[in-house]
Structures are given as C-alpha cells and as structure tokens.
Amino acid sequence: MLNALVTYAAEEAEAHNPLIPAWYDIIWSAVCFVIILFVFWKVALPRMKKMLDERSAAIEGNIAKADEAQRKAEAALEEYTSQLAEARKEAGEIRDAAREDGKKIVAEAKDTASAEAARLTATAHAQIEAERQSALVSLRSEVGTLALDLAGGVIGETLSDDAKAQAVVDRFLAELEESEGAKA
C-alpha cells in the first residue's frame, strides 16, 4: 500500500506542476485581493489622504506663521533701529542745548560780575570823591584858621570879622592853588 501510494503521488506529480497553483486557489485569492483592495480604496486610502492633507495644512500654517513672525521681527528691528537713531539724535540735541545753556550761563555770570565790578568801582570812586571833598573842606577850615592866626600874629591884630576872615582865607588858598598850578 505504501508502494501504491508513492506510485500514485509520483504519477500525479508528473501530471501536475507544483509551481502552478490549483484553479480554486487562484479564484479565492483573487476574491480576497479584490475585497482587501476595495476596503483599502474606500476606507484606508481616504483616511490616509485626509491625514496627509491635515499634516500638509499644518505645515503650511506653521510656515505662514513663521513668515509672519519673521516679518514682525524685521518690522520690530526697523522700528528699534529708527527709535535708536532718533534717541541718538535727541541726545545730541540735548547735549548741544546744554552746551549752549552753559555758554549763556557763563556769559551771564561774566556780565553780572562785570556789572558788579563796575558798580563797586563807581561806588568806590564816589566814596573816594566824597572823602576827598570832606578832607578838602576840613583842610580849608584848618588852613584858614591857621592862616588867620598867623596873619594876626604878623599884622598884630586879631581878625575877628568872619566875612573878612573868610575872604582872606579864600584869597590865600587861591594864591596857593595858583602857585601849585604854575609849578606843574
């Protein structure tokens, strides 16, 4: 029996090629393939396409956001640069104004000091002139008294008349001033 079985298998093996499947295997395999293809085409492929579209939209959205952020950053940089330039310009103007104010303050201080010096000089000159006049009046009265006493001693009489005495003193001082004027 064993022998018969081996012989039957050998005959059938010669009649049938083992590399080619049987017709029922091909049909059932084709049916399963079509069902799997249909399910894949109707279910898996749309889901996959939807997922890829969402990813693509998200990537494009992120790229748009990045571009917008880049534009905002560039705008902020330009604004910062312009503000910095404006601040530097304003600082220069403030510095120049401070220098001008300093020059004005120094000039005003010099003018005030000059005016004060002129006022003090004028006051000193007026005071000196007043003291000179006071000394001259005092000197005239003392010189007059001395001259009257000397004249009284020379003449031998006292000059008691005030008007006469004053005229003698004035004449004496005028002659004294004339003699000083002639020397100079």
What's the layout of helices and strands?
Elements (H helix, E strand, L loop, with lengths): L1 H14 L7 H133 L6 H22 L1
Structure explained in plain terms:
- The protein has 184 residues and is mainly alpha-helical.
- 92% of the residues lie in helices and 0% in strands.
- The protein contains three helices and no strands.
- It has helices at 2-15, 23-155, 162-183.
- The chain is rod-shaped and about 205 Å long.
- The mean pLDDT is 84.
- Residues 59-97 form a coiled coil.
- Belongs to the ATPase B chain family.
- It is a single-pass membrane protein.
- This is ATP synthase subunit b.
- The chain crosses the membrane at residues 26-45.
Report the strand count. Answer: 0
Described by the principal axes of the CA atoms, the overall outline is rod-shaped
Helix vs. strand class = mainly alpha
Q: What order do the helices and strands follow?
A: HHH
Distance, first to last CA? 184 Å
| Chain-averaged pLDDT | 84
Largest sheet: none
Task: Please state the CA-atom Rg, rounded to the nearest Å.
Answer: 68 Å
How much of the sequence is in beta strands? under 5%
Which spans have pLDDT < 50 for at least 5 consecutive residues? none
Give the number of helices: 3
Residues in helices, as a percent range? over 70%
Coiled coil: 59-97
Organism: Microbacterium jejuense
Protein name: ATP synthase subunit b
Pfam family, one: ATP-synt_B
